[in-house]
Amino acid sequence: MDDSVLWRRFHAFDAATVFHIDLAKHKLREAEAMEWLDDAERTRRRRFVHPRPSREFTLCRAALRSLLCRELSCGNDDLSFGTSNFGKPFARVNGVAVPIAFNVSHSGRHGLIALAPKGRVGVDVEERSPNRNLDVCIRLLFAPDEQAEFENVSEHGKVERFYRIWTLKEALVKAVGAGLSIDTAEFEIPLAMVRGVKTGVFRFPDAPTESWGLKSIGNAAFAAAVAYEHGN
Predict the structure, then answer these.
(1) 106 near 125, Cβ under 8 Å?
(2) Residue 28 burial by CB count (10 A; 0-12/13-18/19+): exposed, middle or buried?
(3) 3-class secondary structure for 125-149?
(4) Among 23, 32, 39, 72, which is most exposed with the fewest C-beta within 10 angstroms?
(5) Residue with the larger pLDDT of the pair 5 and 173
């Protein structure tokens, strides 16, 4: 099977590699993806009522399996998944947990998968929507100093800045793997990154000795960010 049908390399650096999955309708790609799913995943797929989430799950899970098998030099039948206490999945080969970290995100027709050989990693992708009620989201999801950065910003600038900050926050939350227990309004993205700098280092207020690398990796089609344990 040609892996390139399922994914393409999107962004790579020392700590992690990010791959892109095209989630648009495509019969060949979906047929290839179905071959990767195990029985439990096929059952889960059938539970989706609407075709779009079914397609997103199928393509993202197949791409993840393809990438992990390549990285771990294992067969698809040897690969399985477990979940942490907060529901974050991890990979197993022949029933034994492996150290490689991964994270998956999708929005619209775009999916991203981040792989890190060691240390935790989180990724987020968002198609920018100017129709979203951004003022409410900014007030509920961002810290006061972040909210202040939206004063005197054009509508286009507001959309760009919102998704830049939001993907960075989501990537951090997903990297930690603590689910909804982290309030995104309780921590602030580095100011330089709020204003457009692509890379930075972050520390949660309640864990100042633990540092996270941040990268904003979006393009014209979508906003995206990756967070990883700094120094790994």
Answers:
(1) yes
(2) exposed
(3) EECCCCCCCHHHHHHHHCCHHHHHC
(4) 39
(5) 173
End residue of a domain, out of 118, 141, 159: 118
Residue 141 and residue 97 share a domain: no
167 SS3 class:
helix
By residue range, what is the domain housing residue 166?
124-229
Whether 133 and 178 share a structural domain: yes
Q: What is the CATH number of the domain that holds 145?
A: 3.90.470.20
The pLDDT tens digits for 14-44 are 899 999 999 999 999 999 999 999 999 999 9
Same domain, 174 and 223: yes
E strand or H helix that includes residue 91: strand 89-93
pTM of the entire predicted model: 0.94
> Other CB atoms closer than 10 Å to residue 104's CB: what's the count?
21
